[in-house]
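Contributing new records

If you add data, match the layout below exactly. Sequence lines come first and carry their own label; structure lines follow with theirs. Keep one chain per record. Anything else will be rejected by the validation script.
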Amino acid sequence: MKHLTSLFLFFCFSTISNAQNVPPLPSDSTENVIFSQVEQEAVFPGGDEGWRQYLIKNLHPERIADLVKFPRGKKVFKQTVIVKFIVSRDGTLWEVTAENYKEVDPYCAASAISVVKKSPNWIPAFQNGRKVNAYRRQPITFVFE
């Protein structure tokens, strides 16, 4: 029987690209523009610690431990799901997907996507002092034994 021994949550929020050489906002409306580079990234309320606490409270990896396909001959099985989503100007999340869904167990991907979708509104990204829609990437790693 498989047992979940630990869950590593990587809180180093990764982005699509870095914030260097950030282009200015166009003079027309940016309401529907989705930025991959911004001056200030979107953040979870409470920052990294708030995000960590949210994941610990809501992820529930033990619910999928017996469903995950454990490779034969392995005593420890590790899965890192890269969740990609958009934080809108009002802080809501949309287009939440597992960027690497083909490489990870579908139960891990579904669990990671679900917990991100259910998260409260984020603090949106800023570009030139204005709130903007922006992509985010969040790795979530499961370790099963």
